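Colleagues,

For the teaching module next term, I've prepared a clean inverse folding example: a structure given as tokens, and then the sequence designed for it. I'd like students to try predicting residues themselves before seeing the answer, so please don't circulate the second half yet.
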């Protein structure tokens, strides 16, 4: 049984979840969201609302709904900070169900970080919020897709930081802890017996021997050496501009990049609309889409559910592997 949060009520999440709920799936789904809002969105898209019986623990229904009410009616395309706590309530209900064993995994539709903060709740993303809520010592954002039939997995050393803050955030401890979680979850969650990880440098040309920055020499290379001494098969630091070469794609099980826009543009260019965001290091499986709330598409019925379907499929696969 998979928990599926419907996300920001002004965005495309509700209709993407309705599209998923209208298709046969390989697991039982529990949608978390406001019934009236979902019914209104289905009407706006000129869709037939799929059967959504009220969720009860232990239900055999292929799709059911845990009805969590918005503070104010959600209007497509119009953010309202009064619904910030509603969005967080969806995450908390899914998280609690995963931690209790009620749900095998949680899949999240996109949320809008800005409007949650406007609602008075400090929020930098699902990854950071779920880490704090579960007390996980270290989590890693991993995005995954498929290129020419081969899995492309990109992990981030830092996540949602201004670029100016990245160099000071890159520490040997951070990199070692990130590699430890990445290696462990590639084994535990993905069933890769001996993961091979390629890690980027921070600076152009991986610092050019110290001429373009010394982070590689003073921080990154020593952290990778410590990881190798701990039994982690990691290569690097490598120049980011050739990190995703065909030969590297064939040799690596995952890539570790130093900051958000160093690796994700490559993955999203290659797999956009089919990519999946996975949070490693949590005590349960959590996957999500590789895109945002797309306010301009909300209620048009034109938003593509491929990434959410891929996130659900991966959650089911991981839950099956980890039973």
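(Answer key — instructors only)
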């Amino acid at each position: 049984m998979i928990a599926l949060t419907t996300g920001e009520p002004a965005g495309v999440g509700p209709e993407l979840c309705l599209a998923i709920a209208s298709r046969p799936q390989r697991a039982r789904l529990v949608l978390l969201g406001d019934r009236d809002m979902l019914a209104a969105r289905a009407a706006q898209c000129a869709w037939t609302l799929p059967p959504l019986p009220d969720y009860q623990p232990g239900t055999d229904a292929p799709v059911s709904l845990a009805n969590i009410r918005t503070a104010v009616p959600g209007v497509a395309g119009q953010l309202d900070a009064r619904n910030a706590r509603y969005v967080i309530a969806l995450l908390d209900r899914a998280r609690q169900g995963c931690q209790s064993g009620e749900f095998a995994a949680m899949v999240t539709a996109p949320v809008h970080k800005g409007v949650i903060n406007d609602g008075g709740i400090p929020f930098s993303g699902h990854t950071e919020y779920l880490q704090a809520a579960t007390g996980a010592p270290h989590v890693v954002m991993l995005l995954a897709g498929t290129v020419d039939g081969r899995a492309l997995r990109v992990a981030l050393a830092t996540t949602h930081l201004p670029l100016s803050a990245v160099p000071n955030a890159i520490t040997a401890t951070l990199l070692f802890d990130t590699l430890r979680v990445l290696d462990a979850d590639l084994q535990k969650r993905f069933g890769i017996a001996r993961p091979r990880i390629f890690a980027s440098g921070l600076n152009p040309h991986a610092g050019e021997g110290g001429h373009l920055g010394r982070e590689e020499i003073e921080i990154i290379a020593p952290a990778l050496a410590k990881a190798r001494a701990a039994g982690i098969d990691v290569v690097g630091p490598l120049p980011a501009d050739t990190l995703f070469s065909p030969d590297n794609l064939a040799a690596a099980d995952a890539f570790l990049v130093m900051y958000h826009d160093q690796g994700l543009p490559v993955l999203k260019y290659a797999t956009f609309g089919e990519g999946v965001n996975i949070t490693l290091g949590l005590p349960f499986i959590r996957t999500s889409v590789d895109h945002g709330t797309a306010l301009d598409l909300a209620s048009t019925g034109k938003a593509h559910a491929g990434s959410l379907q891929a996130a659900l499929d991966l959650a089911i696969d991981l839950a099956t592997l980890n039973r």
